[in-house]
Structures are given as C-alpha cells and as structure tokens.
C-alpha cells in the first residue's frame, strides 16, 4: 500500500512540475512607447508577482495551469486588468502591455482643508478637489479669474451682482455668498468688503489645486463657513525649476497674460506669479450698456520657502493687486460726450501677506504657526454717489498635531480681526465696524477599523459683540469594499452680522443703515450631508464612478435687507432659511472618451412670521454635461452643456430657463508648448435675448436681477509654454 502511495505522490509532483510555465511580458508607456521601470504584474488568485526591469521586462516563474487575472500597476498610470488562460501559446517574444496615464489624479492628492494630510479616499469629511488637467482645462476658459472654475461644479453657482461691472459672488447649495468662506492656503483673506470682487480678481495659473467642502465648516476655520469653504492651494517649488507663461485673447477684446516661476536650490525655494488682465467695454446686446466692463488689473505674488533645518521650515508670501474697472454707458466709456451717463466705477487695491512656520518636534508631533494680514481699499462710484472704505483683517493661529497608528489629533488657538473704516458714503450713518474673534479648537481622526473612520471636532469662538459660539462637528466614513464608500457628516455654524452682502452690493451700499450689535445676534446654522461613492468596471475599457450627495442646512434668524422709505436697513425677523436637496455626479470612462453628467436639486425656502417663500436667484434644477475626448499629454476636445431651471427673482417675477453650450480644446506640441481654443456659450444665450436687465432709461436704469449670462457668445484662445 505504501509503495502505491509513494508512486502517486511522485506522479503528482511530476504533473505539477509539467503544469507550471514561465510567463514573460513587457510594460511600456502608451503614448511614448518608453519602457516602464518598476511596474508590477500580479496574479491575485495565487498570489504571484514580479517587477519590471530597466527594459520594462517582467518574468513570472512557474505559473500553474488555469485562468487567472493579471493586474498590472504603475504609479501615475491606469491599472490594467486582463484575463489569461495558462499555459499561454508558446512564443519567444514577451507579451506587450501599454499603460495609459491615470486620469483619477484625486486619488493621489493630499487633502489640506480638513487640517490633516490624507489622500482624499481616506478622509471622512467629503472634499471635492479640482486639480491637474481638470484645473488646467477650466483655467483655459477664464484665465483671468476663477468664476468659471467654480461655476461648472454641481451644487455651486456664481451669482452676478452687477449688470455692468460683472461683480460676482459664489453660492454653495443655494445659499448667499456671505455664507461661504474663501481661503488661500488655509488662510481667510477674502471676506467682508473684499469679497464683492474676489472671484473676479484671482487668476488660476499659480494654483496647484482647489478644495471645496460643502456644508457647515465653521468648526474647521471659524465663522462664515455655513454653506462651506473654498480653499485655493498654491503651487510650491519642486526639485525641477519651472517657468510657465500663458497668453490669452478673447473675441470681446479681452487680454490675459500670466507667468509663473518656481525654483528650489538647497534650503531656499521661491515662487513668483504675475499677471496682467485687460477687459474692453463690450455690449453684445447693442443696448448701450456694458456686459463686460473696461478694466485693467495687475497682480504679483512672490513667495519664499526656507527649509531652516531638517525639522523646520518657513514660508513667507506677499500678494499685491491693483485694478481699475469701469462699466455702464458704452459711449461714455469710449470717450464720447454723453449727457447724464450712467456708469459704475470700481477702484481696488489689495495687499496681503502670509506666514507659515512648521516645526517637527518628533516623529509624530508637529507644531505650526500661521498668520495672514490683508489690507483692502476699494471705492465704488456711480452718478451722484461715491462709496469707499478700507478693510484691515488678520488671522493668526498656533496649533499642534500628533499622529498615532490609528488616530490623529490637532488642537490650537487663533485670533481673527476684521475692521472696516468708511472713507466716503453716507456721512451721517457710516458703516464702520470692528470684530475680533478668539477661537480654540480640537479635532480627532480615528481609524476604528479597516472599514470605519471617524472625524470629530469642537471649536469655541468668542466675540465681544455677539457672545460665545460652541461648534461641534462629526463625520463618519464606512468603506465596506474598495468600490463603495459612505460618508455622513454634520455640524453647527454661525455668521457675524455685517453690511457686506449680495443685496447690499447690488445697490452699491447706498442709503444703508449700519448694524447696531446691541440689536442683532449672529446667524446660527445646523446642517448635515450624506454622501455615497461607487465605482464599477464593465469589462476592461468601460468604467463608472458615481457620487450622490444629500444635503440639508438650516439658518436661524438670518439678516434681511429691507427698504424703509428711501433708505434700507437690516432686520432680523423670527424665522429661518432652509436649503435641502441632492447632487448626483457620474463619470463614464471608455477608452479615450470621458462623459461627466451632474445634476443638482436645490430646494431653498425662507420663512418669516409663518410666511414661507422661495429663496430668490436659485436654480432649483441644474444639469451639467461634459463629453471629453482626450489623448493624454497630446490633445483633448470637449463639448459641454449646462441647464438652469427658472429662478425666482426679487421683483416677484420668475426668470426663464436656459442652456449654455460650449466647446473647448487644447493641442500640445511636446512637453513645453500648447495652444488652446474655446467657444464659450456658442448658442449666444443671454438674458438680454429673452428678458430685460433694467427698467427706466439708459441714463437712470433700475437694474433687475441678473440670473443668466449677459456677455453671450465669446471665443477665446491662446498659447501656453514652459521655458523650464
């Protein structure tokens, strides 16, 4: 019996030896054909794997018979999965595989806005990132500002507040722009008086990424982030120097010229961004009023990076911006003699500084000091009225963070000062104010298990004028599989009353009574989000990434700007402002094609003294569609279409629904040069085509709400080149 058993074992071993084969493959870049060194090929069912050599060759030894999935990976490239039946047909040549560059760049990016350094897929708070090629593509369309960059995202709408000067503010999930906090590298420098033109005065060429958190975020950065926050992350110098230049011109006779330089040598690094943006008075409706004003803007932003020693670093930044903007009667702006012309003139000067000092106390603990100071001087002149003032604001913070195996903690103290001094305006009722906010916060990230991650935080803010604000926050992430992720979060927020709102901006702060802190309290909010992400592959070439967000925010006793005779005053009646709805995003990938489909449902109502009404200037239904064809690092072309449903207007009327359709393209020539051409709004959708923008005469217009584009069909194109 034993000899038969030994013979059976021997035969089994021989059969195993003869049923195993060696398999060789070559892995290369799809575009250039260059071999990829260090690429991995893995048979997950066994498991068995190997790494490619300097020629891109990889050898899998003794692969057993059977049908297995080969998974081929390389950092920065799309993962390739194919099935092979072994043994494969005999061949002396290795099987060749070409990998395409990864388009899912967000998976590799670090999120900074939630005060941790984690990749986006590991963060419980829902964060949206615009980066890489997406940032570049959107920046091509409006190189002079970030309005287009944000307006094409679901749940975000940029609201134009002036028919003639193009002033705009950002609305997240239907809420007024004053409820969104705009940051630069985690420092709040665009708020209050300086927020009215902020979107129009930020050029995107020096941005590495843009992070958006929707919903209550006051726990992270203090008051003003009831609807959410937008954090503009600047580029930093890398080992390889960079000198990039962009030149852009438009059919509306606009011009944008930007340059970005970055270099690092030893312990010292620097970046310098400068831009010149010019607009020419433009009236596509031929009504005698500018849809695009005449403006000239200069910006320079140098930054210094110093690695003091291996455990500490210092970053210093300076931002200088100067702009003159004139809109209104077209003939008057062009220099003609006009009797009683209407005009709106904005003159702006901005100076801001930033400081960031990091000290690594030990392997797990870091100490940080942050500071920014902003000076903003703006004047607004219309016939028979001039309003001007200066805003002085600062933000200072010290924090300490520590990381363990499963948990991260960060705690800190900060001081936020905000002072406005009126220079010209209503002399009897100046709009001066001075707010100092003292804050303390603590936040924890806890990996409870492989599937569960929790983020909790608590902030306590104090203002002499409006009291104490306790601000808790909670987020949870459940990831049952690599393809499915759930996020649930919520928190409280507040906004201190100031006169700088969208409604006040529309009337140029004329005839407005100041806010008496003794008669008002801060606006307070509560909100929650539920987020679902799903990824699925249909074969080797078709894939879907889907995201659904349910949101809810309620603001108690919000401020209302109310006419009282010939004047306006803020009131705070008992009631609430409530927004709820959903955002749906789908991204389909098939070979070199990508289809983005987004839908936003925003149901925003206000209720005062038991009277409920629709909140104005919110599209209840929005659809975003973008179809892209893209050969990575070579050529791309995209067709986009956006739908806006009718919006309730402040005069009691209802606006019209409309579509905006555009075509965008870029062609690259090597690594250093590209040309781009965009046809924005080529259906020439304009409010002046299907509705009016003012009543009365052109010399004394009474402007209606602007809910649709006024500039119409505009072609823009230009070149980008990199000298270093």
UniProtKB/TrEMBL annotation:
Q: Which Pfam families match?
A: CarbopepD_reg_2 (PF13715), Plug (PF07715), TonB_dep_Rec_b-barrel (PF00593)
Q: Which GO terms describe its cellular component?
A: cell outer membrane
**TonB-dependent receptor-like beta-barrel domain segment(s):** 341-681
Gene3D superfamilies in the cross-refs:
Carboxypeptidase-like, regulatory domain, TonB-dependent receptor, beta-barrel domain, TonB-dependent receptor, plug domain
Annotated keywords = Cell outer membrane, Membrane, TonB box, Transmembrane, Transmembrane beta strand, Transport
PROSITE patterns of this UniProt entry?
A: TONB_DEPENDENT_REC_3
What is one Gene Ontology biological process annotated in the Swiss-Prot or TrEMBL record?
siderophore transmembrane transport
List the membrane topology term(s).
Answer: Multi-pass membrane protein
Intracellular or extracellular location(s): Cell outer membrane
One GO MF term on file is: siderophore uptake transmembrane transporter activity
Q: Which domain of life does this protein belong to? A: Bacteria
Among InterPro entries, the record links this protein to: Beta-barrel_TonB, Beta-barrel_TonB_sf, CarboxyPept-like_regulatory, Plug_dom, Plug_dom_sf, TonB-dep_rcpt-like
Q: Which residues form the TonB-dependent receptor plug domain?
A: 121-228
> What family does this chain come from, according to its entry?
Belongs to the TonB-dependent receptor family.
Which named protein is this?
Answer: Iron complex outermembrane recepter protein
**Which species is this UniProt entry from?**
Algoriphagus halophilus
